[in-house]
Amino acid sequence: MQPDSARRGVSRRLFLVALAGLASLLAVGTLIRSRWIDLRALEDGIKDSPRLRRWLAIDLDASSGVGDLSAEQIAALRALAAVLVPSRYAENEEALSASSDFARELSRDVPGYRLEFERAVALLDARSRSRYGREFASLGLNERRELVDDVVGGMVRSGPVGRGLRYVLSDGRDVWRLFRFAARGLMVGFYASALGWRLVGYPNPPGDCVGLAEFQQPAQLPVGS
Amino acid sequence: MSEFCIVGAGAAGCALALRLARRGQRVTVIESGPRYTEEQKERFFLQYRSGRDLGNPYRLPEASIEAYRNDGKVNLPLNYERSRGLGGTTLFWLGNTPRMLPDDFRMRSRFGVAEDWPISYDELEPYYAQAEVEIGIAGTDDNPFAGHRSTPYPMPPIPFSLADKLIKKATDRLGYDLHHTPQARNSVGYGGRSECLGCAFCMVCPSGAKATFDRTHALPAEQTGRVRFLTDCTALRLELDASGRVARVVYAGLDRVEHAQEADVFVVSSGGIETPRLLLLSASARFPDGLANRSGVLGRHLMNHPVANTTGTFEQRLDPFRVIFESSESFQFYATGTRAETAAFLWNVNNTGGDRPAEIAETAGLWGDALLSRIETDFGHTASLSAGVDQLPDPRNRIRLDPHEVDYFGSPVPLITYDFDGYTQRGLERARQVMAEVLIEAGARNAEGSKVNWWPGHHLGTVRMGNDAARSVVDRNLRTHDVPNLYLCTTGVWTTGGCANPTLTLTALALRLGDHLSGG
Questions:
Q1: Beta-carbon contacts of residue A149 (< 8 Å; ≥ 6 apart)
Q2: Which of B114, B237, B258, B415 is the most exposed place for a label (fewest CB within 10 A)?
């Protein structure tokens, strides 16, 4: 017979296991019901679970190191950026450079990012060859939009049957990584640039050091200009 | 003339070194981190500007030098809020520099809780004034709750932001006071440094307008020819001579080779975590529980200022992120008469409400035109208020040596046990109520309070000051009760926490100590 303290310990562990299971069911249920996966909520939900973190590969693989991307990889990332930025900037050099320059910086400076960009390009090229018979960077803009929507849209748009969940929870880890690291990196590069800030009405992006007068007044540009 | 050795080149160490040097003393300062170059700082700034989330960029390549572990209910994220290097955490700080209130020094006498400091506001006031001049503080005397001032601020205040002006109208209607934040940021050219240019990434100020102690104090200290800084040198232990005085500090560089620095007087100014840790690492037959720990309180009474946010969504744009520092604050609920029951709090308006466009892009799960549409809708309509809350000393909150994990040098890492009690919890709840009231009065559609969402690097109380050697580690002059030539100058000497950001008070204490040690 176990001492009381041991039995209490077993009961407590069972309770905690049951509680964790219930929380997981609720989380999955929420994701299935919602039309869109809330990526922040999903990531917040799994950040404290080492097993899920490993399984979903939520962290960069720092051991893969840093390095330069090839010209072909940069071209593919610019082709992807053209899909991710607002449509009227799809062929805008400033916009595409902001995205690809940021990708280049991350690859050089942050261990693990180079691998993620390489993986993203490889995945898009594989899907592109399968569907169109040629590499992603050589596709027309509409073809690229269709492909990205097919590849990534399946993950982030979740219908009642949890189509997106199937991506994330079954064979979608590569897509997850593509969106989490490569696509986000390209979008952050664009929206942190001077052009991105102009879109929200700021004539000068933070970091331009224009003095203290500006922050006392409303921004000067119409939003979306 | 005595030889002084200071361990730690943060705000306290740099200010003390300069004061001693100006009094003709010779000083060696041992600093665990590097001397960051202007080129390194510029690179950090450009990375922030390009969209990188660097967190705290002032981290050591050998991460295990900074290792620590938590085993309490609250995990303190130490390394986001402290930095090793010449200038210490001021390299990264935001620069808010309010004075503490006179009542903070007499919590037992005034409110019947905790203990009184062995010094008063009035004793420290001249040093507050000197510290404000040395650091360069922009402010104005518009805080009706502040203690008396013997001198004006050396610079006019940083003006109110767009969000401040909106909130100010609401606080005026509610009868609450909102005033300018005193801050270590030049509103005009000062000390050979530029006025603030609003560069928006204050963690690495490119204009030099934000005071960092490597510039404001370490550089002029070196220029006296009487101070030398040994950077990338980590103190491992203090060793005593036969008479019970500290004879030397043993330190090592990245090659792990041990060296010793001797001096007549030693001052440990390594922050509220590493200072007690170094004394614990210096245990000996004479002090088996840690150097200068006959009282048994070394490492205990760890306090912080738990921070909660409340956000509100507005119809109009508030255009945040053009600066990230805080330009207004309120002492209304800090200078309160209810501190016997409920923690006081100091609240402020953030100039960083909501998410940046790039942050929305990271989390929205959208791209292309749909993402832009979301950003146009969401960005810039959020106001955010924050409150830092007082905490009373509790001996259960403490720093110990970790029995399992060691650092780069083989020394046990600090093990932190930390939580807060109902006193602070009530203060947090009251803060959320007040901030929600203000936001709604200002026109917010809603007001949503967070849990404690931030633990600033205000590590207080771990080597507390007191007159009673059985209940404190240092006396009113910051000398340890147990070792006659050992002084501690760190936020760890706080007897009670108050709500004010601690660096100005720490600098004032360092200047006072400098005068004491040099007979000035």
A1: none
A2: B258
